[in-house]
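Build the 3D complex.
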Amino acid sequence: MKTDTTHEFWRLTGIFTETFWKKNVVLVQAAGLCPILSAGVSLKNGVVLTICTMLILVCCGLFMSLIGIKLPAWLRPVAYTVLATGLLVGAAYGLDRYVSHELYTKLYLFIPLIAVSTLTTTRVGGFSAGNRLSASLADALGASFGFGLVICIVSALREITISNTIWGHTLPIELSMPEVSLTFAAYILLGFMAAGLQTLFSRRLRKQERGERL
Amino acid sequence: MNTFWYLLTAALLQNFVLSTGFGSSMALRLSRRPLTLLPFGCLLTVFSALSVAGVYPLDKLLGSDPTAKLLRPLLIIAVVSVLYIVLYGLLKLIGTPLADLLRKMLPTVAFNNVTVGVLLIINHQFALPLMTAIALSVGTTIGFTLLALLIGDLRRRLDHPDVPVAFRGLPLLLVSLGLLALGLMGFSSSVVLM
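Done.
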């Protein structure tokens, strides 16, 4: 019984690390690029979009895991997209009313788009439907944290270079490159981040291969 | 003339994917299968034009107060979902091999950042007549298809042993897209749509 629980724990940890790190949803699978490219210009934006993405991936993932298999395949995209849009409209209302109207105005266009982003269609529509509840939750959390890590790094770097601030606090540096707010800068930055991750894994793979040969 | 100018500009001069980032993940994924890109692009163009025509009058009815602004995404998704179900049924009725291929593509065509993003942007930023809005959506989807074809070709050319291991595949593709977006920025001084 204990072995079964341990085995299950390691299986779920494997699913989490796969989408979070080894096959990062953004830097390896190229999913969820849209919010990073267009709205990832300040750390606050990055954090709000991460929370919204996590809300959608977890709730819709669990929904699809529970009843997705009972629905015909062609109806599944309609079911999770409508649910996701409803949740995101609620999240946008909460952001506007209780958090910050300024942030809502900045992100009004981008929050509903999370419902139809590639991240949602691949994780919720592709993985969660047909997988167990625990596996679906581990995948949703891995994908959310993987996406969150990338968008927060890109947003923070862009905020620093655009306005010399981080989370609204001024930094003692002299940098002013407002052009970084355009999409080309995010594409290049993501390209270098993806290269960094690829280098890390290719080195680890080479070390493993050498170890096996010895 | 204005309508045609919008179509041309959205298709060639100010690429939606490169200037806004909407649909970039989909373009990268679709570029792996260049043979299916053309039928996908045609279906995307038809679907996008139909959804603009469907959302436009309802959006006018909804108005522009803060509550309407909040509910607009739900209206858009409702129209897109109805259109998806109707088209799916129609393609199933037709039943030819091409219709079956298009039916398999339909979920990706209907629920993506390009289709929904265009609807949100047209209604949020522009006060355009219906025909111009349709022309803009058609131009955008043509631009998307051309870019996906270009990425497919880039993918093939960049698969070269001289490319450093770290940059092989997605990293170099992203950097190339960034440089392409930077190049196209030159047009934005004379043409500003999105």
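The beta strands of chain A are 165-166, 169-170.
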